[in-house]
């Protein structure tokens, strides 16, 4: 069981599943969400539209997660999660922690061995990256400890630059 951080492009990571910091409508957007939709190709949007027309008619709740195939990405699955938006007053750390825990639950249901997370809610949603890193690491460590035999066993945080890597490294060392 490993928990690590790396600098990279989430859309190029070779992992069984990558996590999309999605919006509740699941129909693409900016930032990580837009990059994943662009790299996965139009079939990802079609899959998300199917979710919206069937199991998620009202969209995906903050803190929840759902999977689609990854289509043109190197991963097999995209696990979409909706982080809390601090600019909208969504400041409950439990909702942010739920994004990581629910994504791991979905990954376990899919029996994936490796999963790569972005810094959910740290970008346009306004959460300080130090809080995101601390909550992400604590939640993932706790989930892995509670599910020692479950997949995934390789959990990675993929960030854009050295500054973010250093923040996640610090959280990994502190937890």
Automatic annotation (TrEMBL):
Keywords: Hydrolase. Residues 1-175 form the Macro domain. CDD domains: Macro_OAADPr_deacetylase. One of its GO terms (molecular function) is O-acetyl-ADP-ribose deacetylase activity. It comes from the Bacteria. The keyword Hydrolase applies. InterPro entries: Macro_dom (IPR002589), Macro_dom-like (IPR043472). Coiled coil: none annotated. Transmembrane segments: none annotated. Its EC number is 3.1.1.106. Gene3D superfamilies: Leucine Aminopeptidase, subunit E, domain 1 (3.40.220.10). This is O-acetyl-ADP-ribose deacetylase.
